[in-house]
Amino acid sequence: MSEQIKGNNMFKLNNQPALFSFENELCKKQRDLLAGSKEKWFHHLIFRNIREQDFQPLFSEKASRPNVPINILVSALVLKELKGLSYDELMESILFDLRFKTALGPVSIEEVPFSGATLFNFQNRPGEYEQQIGVNLIEPVFDRLTAEQIRELSLKTDIQRTDSTMVSSNIRKYSGVQLLIEVLLRLGKKLSETDKQAIGEQLQAYLEKGSQKYVYALKSKDLPHELEKLGQVYYTVHNQIKENQRYQGSQELINFERVYREHFVVVEQEINPRPTEELHSGMLQSPDDPDATYRKKREQSGKGYVINATETGHPDNPIQLVTDIAVAPNNTDDSLVLNERIDPIMEKTPELKEMHTDGGYGSEANDKKFEELGITQVTTAVRGRECEVDIIIAQTGQSPAGYLVKCPGQQVLSTPTKQRHKVRFDLAVCRGCSLKEKCPMVKNKGRYCFKHEDYLKNKRNNNILNIPAQRRKIRPNVEALMKEFKTRTNNGKTKVRGIFKTTLFAVNAMIAINFGRIYRYVAKKALTDGFDPPMPTALYNIMLITNHLLRKSAIFVRNFFASWLCLEYFYSKDVLRLNMPAMRALN
Question: pTM of the full predicted structure?
Answer without folding.
Answer: 0.84
